[in-house]
Amino acid sequence: MKLKRSLKNTVKAGLCLSILIYFFISCHFPFEPTYRQSEIANQIEKICQEEYNLKVITKSSSNTLWIYAPLPRIIHRDFGIDKEKFLDEEMIDKLRNILITIGRVFLSADKPPEFYCLLASDINIGIDYTLVGNTLDIKKSYAGFIPWPESNRRYVIRIELNPEAIADETGSHLKPYDIKLEEFLAQQIAQRIGMRFQEEELKKYFQVERVSGNFSDDSFIFEYAIKKMKESKFKIEDEIIKIINYVLNSYEFDRYLMVEIKDMLSGSKTVLSKARIKEIK
């Protein structure tokens, strides 16, 4: 099976999953914590089973709750025929309900984890759909500090073929680990860069082939392969730096020294200090 798709469709799928979650959570957020930290995982499994008839398995690391959902189908049956159809509609509905449950329990708990990772696997053909979220973003969305569209952009989403997912009803191929904020931000920034150059005002000028982000030795490293299709007033590196500045400032993250930006097509590289990143408007 050939699985090739754009960042735009990947993130668009994530947005579909979370629509209406904000409004649902708003109506169910109590003033006092309902669950203790030790009850969070069990409550998510219980609510998913009792209210949505969904089997999920939870696993934990010290700062991240992992939620595994074995599903019969992830990709829409018309994928490849209709470009607007990628994720299976029933799968979208199931993941939306799981995200609603995560929000309900986290907002009702005294000490929710810093991150959560929802892994939904097509156990018939072996596909992993991963969605990583930051708990503080949930709280800020509820409090009105983050507009809901922006909250959706803060998910880190990826989809990939994985033979280990085949027939995995228990989540044995899920290996929990602690998600680090700097890694989360690097991946989110890379995702936003890909999305930016596929927006209406830019997609006719540029073609995104690859964008990646990671954090190493106290520095963010971003690599991109974005083809320029025709002349434009927009400069690729300028747009990338704006996104980096916006995300790092939004999360008030300053535990880094440098930002390295590499054009994989030309081989050129730009290195910016933290002070330079912060002063960019």
Give the percentage of residues in beta strands: 15-25%
Radius of gyration, Cα only, in angstroms?
19 Å
Structural class: alpha+beta
Largest sheet data: 5 strands, mixed
Give the SSE order as H and E letters.
Answer: HHHEEHEEHHEHHEEHEEH
Secondary structure tally, helices = 10
Number of domains: 2
- Strand arrangement in the largest pleated sheet: 1-2-3-4-5
Give the helix proportion (percent range). Answer: 25-40%
Strand tally is 9
Mean pLDDT: 89
Low-confidence region ranges: 4-8
Q: Give the N-terminus to C-terminus distance in angstroms.
A: 44 Å
Shape annotation: globular
Reconstruct the topology from this structure.
Blueprint: H1 7-18, H2 21-26, H3 40-52, E1 57-60, E2 64-71, H4 89-107, E3 115-122, E4 127-134, H5 135-143, H6 148-153, E5 156-161, H7 181-196, H8 200-203, E6 206-216, E7 219-228, H9 236-250, E8 258-263, E9 269-273, H10 274-279
Parallel strand pairs: 2-3, 7-8
Antiparallel strand pairs: 1-2, 3-4, 4-5, 6-7, 8-9
Helix pairs in contact: 1-4, 3-4, 7-9
Q: What does the model show?
A:
- The protein is an alpha+beta fold and 281 residues long.
- It has two domains: 172 residues, no CATH class; 96 residues, Alpha-Beta Plaits (2-Layer Sandwich).
- Helices cover 38% and strands 23% of the residues.
- It has a five-stranded mixed sheet with strand order 1-2-3-4-5.
- A hairpin with a 4-residue loop joins strand 3 and strand 4.
- About 2% of the residues have low confidence.
